[in-house]
Design a protein that fits this description.
254 residues; alpha/beta; binds S-adenosylmethionine
Length: 254
């Protein structure tokens, strides 16, 4: 099967910010994790690559000083970021991983939070990332890897989601090969326990918004049947909902 692709200009831009909102506490935790991996000097210039609705960009600028360049291919995701995630020292620009509108050796850190699996040509992207990264810079990839997937609590209701994600996500090995070819290697690999939702009601409400991109690729019949089965389980008190999960963070450098 060829790799599926999701255009965030279609549906995701309308729901993503709400469906994937992150608590202040979790945002702070991520900033602490990133601070441990990035160079100690301040300020740091950060590239938020695939910045989406700007979920992380303002916190990156506040934590590391900036400037933060949010590079994002979807016009509509960028428009949400400009409206809802504007901050001093943050700018959102059109571009993508294989075409980064920044000079050579200009950034101290590159964050790719859940965006690398959407990049069609990963080797070209890795070369481009290596080009803009300073000699001691770091790539922080919160990745999705097909060989490290664990089923989400809602997978049982939407069986195609797992198949799509298995095809959409690269393996960790493929990811490392792409970066090694560009002169970047794995420095650290962390498993972060992430709190996605505060309550079960919030988890269900967010799921209904379909802010998980693979929802764009499943048949409407399957989505309708899946939500009906979930509703039946919720009414019977037998739904098993997880509020937390393991998030992989791959750290690369020279
Ligand atoms: C799951 S969202 C993550 C957004 C943001 N990093 C966050 O965590 O909220 C994935 C983002 O990657 C973007 N994307 C898709 N193809 C890309 C590419 N070739 N290069 C960079 N970003 C890409 C999408 O448009 C989308 O905004």
């Amino acid at each position: 099967m060829s790799r599926p692709s999701v255009d965030y200009d279609n549906n995701q831009h309308a729901v993503y910010a709400k469906a994937r909102s992150i608590s202040g506490e979790m945002l702070s935790r991520w900033m602490s994790v990133f601070a441990e991996q990035l160079p100690a000097r301040r300020p740091l210039t950060i590239l938020d690559l695939g910045s989406g609705t700007g979920r992380f960009s303002p916190a990156l600028a506040a934590t590391f000083g900036g400037p933060v360049h949010g590079v994002e291919p979807s016009d509509r995701m960028r428009a949400v970021a400009e409206a809802a995630s504007a901050a001093p020292n943050v700018r959102y620009v059109a571009g993508e991983a294989a075409r980064i509108p920044l000079p050579d050796a200009s950034v101290d850190g590159v964050l790719m939070f859940l965006s690398f699996h959407h990049v069609p040509d990963k080797r070209v992207a890795a070369r481009e990332i290596a080009r803009v990264l300073k000699a001691d810079g770091r790539v922080l990839m919160r990745g999705q890897f097909s060989d490290r997937r664990t089923p989400a609590w809602y997978s049982r209701y939407f069986p195609s989601l797992a198949t799509i994600e298995q095809t959409l996500f690269p393996t960790l090995g493929e990811t490392l090969e792409a970066f090694e070819a560009a002169g970047l290697r794995q420095l650290t690999f962390l498993e972060i326990e992430e709190v996605y939702h505060q309550t079960e009601a919030e988890a269900v409400e967010k799921l209904r918004m379909r802010g998980i991109s693979a929802f764009d690729l499943i048949a409407e019949d399957e989505a309708t049947a899946g939500f009906a089965a979930l509703d039946a389980d919720l009414a019977a008190g037998r739904a098993t909902i997880r509020l937390t999960g393991r998030s992989d963070l791959l750290v690369l450098g020279r």
